[in-house]
Amino acid sequence: MSGHGTPIPMTSRKGAPLRGEAHVPGDKSISHRSLILGAMAVGETRVTGLLEGQDVLDTGRAMEAFGAEVINHGGGEWSVHGVGVGGFAEPENVIDCGNSGTGVRLIMGAMATCPITVTFTGDESLNGRPMGRVIDPLALFGTQSVGREGGRLPMTIVGAKSPVPVRYVVPVPSAQVKSAVLLAGLNAPGNTVVIEKEATRDHTERMLVGFGADLSVEDTDEGSVITLVGQPELKPQTIIVPRDPSSAAFPVCAALLSEGSDVLVPNIGLNPTRAGLFYTLQDMGADLTFENMREEGGEPVADLRAQYSPNMVGIAVPPERAASMIDEYPVLSVVAAFAKGQTVMKGVKELRVKESDRIDAMAQGLRAAGVEVDEGPDWWTVTGAGFGNVEGGITAQSRLDHRIAMSFLIMGLATNKPMSVDDGGPIATSFPIFEGLMTDLGAGITRTNV
Ligand code: S3P
Fold first, then answer.
1. pLDDT digits (tens, 9 = 90+) for 342-364
2. Residue of the nearest CA to atom 9 in ligand 1?
3. Is the separation of the CB atoms in 94 and 136 below 8 Å?
4. SS3 of 306, please?
5. Across the chain, what does the average pLDDT equal?
């Protein structure tokens, strides 16, 4: 859906210790892929624990527009009756991906080698984001497109009628780009090869193998070489979606920052391409442990236990870890504000093209709240003032960005004065139960005007 209606101002304040268990929703990346790959398989895919956030619901609606049947059985149980690789029908209407970069870029890839024409749009945030990074490699398959200036949505894509396979070196560390090329490669004859120099989340590769595609990954001097044999028949799967580490980051960081807290966040996917924040927090001295480590559905999973950690110190985050925690820098910058010393975050220019320019969005709010932040095109530093020394007392702009809204609300649980955000509405894109889950733990988070 484009836009999300009336703004929902929210406020958070210091209060009781956080206690209990935080059952965060299903992984957003895996949820999108479950619906898209389910729609490209022949037969019925069953999905348990799907994230029912707006981003994923928009992808589900898009799959229906392409001819798949998407059924909500309730309680996080969904099924998708797929139409097979190359079987997408031409949608009768514009595909609106709302706020979701993952949704639109993966769907563009999935339809790019089908003989159909599709127009995509989104909300104000999504329509400002670069699509050239996906359109350029899709053109190599024979796809044509026309969009707004700067490769922005709305954009119409004419799928390749006689697709050819491609060999593509991904120029930016982006799982969305990698995945779009692989999904397009599914309906091209022969081998599509994607090379990535920096490892990004690998859910598409893992899930394609699960759906029966012939895909191999080789580590070479050039980087990771992913080879996909085109035109497989994907077999429907039963998928249990692990809980989202990017959502877990919020109750975990809230517990680290709130005096006396002890919170368990069970069943969190700890795929190494996603878990960078938790190792970074441990490096900073956080009292954060992984309990009951196990493997579920091909993904490593653990229960995270986070306790109040007043002695954290700033660190230089290893830049090679950036891709594995790219969505977690906003909330990390909040933790850094309470640590002692400087936290240095380098190699993060991708943060500037997310749902918002996340460096700018956080820097502005942090500075207004009394925190020292320095920034360059692909780096930023936060100089922590230590617990008890961060003033707060401002209203931050969430800029249609769920993670910015949630980060500032977590911050307000430890600042001297409450923190507000102008609009908590975007939180529903990825973490619709955030407010209830946090208040059940004891957090002082409220809607400002209600
Ligand atoms: C995602 C990839 C990342 C991430 C996004 C989800 C995915 O984006 O920021 O939230 O599911 O593939 P990029 O691929 O643009 O880095």
1. 999 999 999 999 999 999 999 99
2. 327
3. no
4. strand
5. 97
Assigned CATH class of 10-26+242-447: alpha beta
Residues 6+ apart with CB under 8 A from 74: none
* Residue of 51, 40, 177 whose CA lies nearest to 104: 177
Closest CA to 340 of 284, 381, 276, 297: 284
Residues 364-409: tens digit of each pLDDT:
999 999 999 999 999 999 999 999 999 999 999 999 999 999 999 9
**C-alpha of residue 170 to centroid of ligand 1, in Å:** 14
Task: Please state the atom number of ligand 1 nearest to the C-alpha of residue 175.
Answer: 14
- CATH topology of 10-26+242-447 equal to that of 28-240? yes
Domain ranges of the chain: 10-26+242-447, 28-240
The end-to-end CA distance of the chain, in Å, is 25
Q: CB within 6 Å of ligand 1 — which residues?
A: 29, 102, 174-176, 179, 201, 326-327, 350
What is the architecture, at CATH level 2, of domain 28-240?
Answer: Alpha-beta prism (3.65)
Residues with a known catalytic role: 327
d(CA 425, CA 430) in angstroms, rounded, equals 11
Among the listed residues 44, 30, 33, 28, the one whose alpha carbon sits nearest the alpha carbon of residue 238: 44
The amino acid occupying position 251 is P
Contacts of 376 (CB under 8 A, 6+ apart): none
Query: Is the pTM of the predicted complex or chain greater than 0.70?
Result: yes
| Per-residue pLDDT tens over the stretch 285-331 | 999 999 999 988 778 899 999 999 999 999 999 999 999 999 999 99
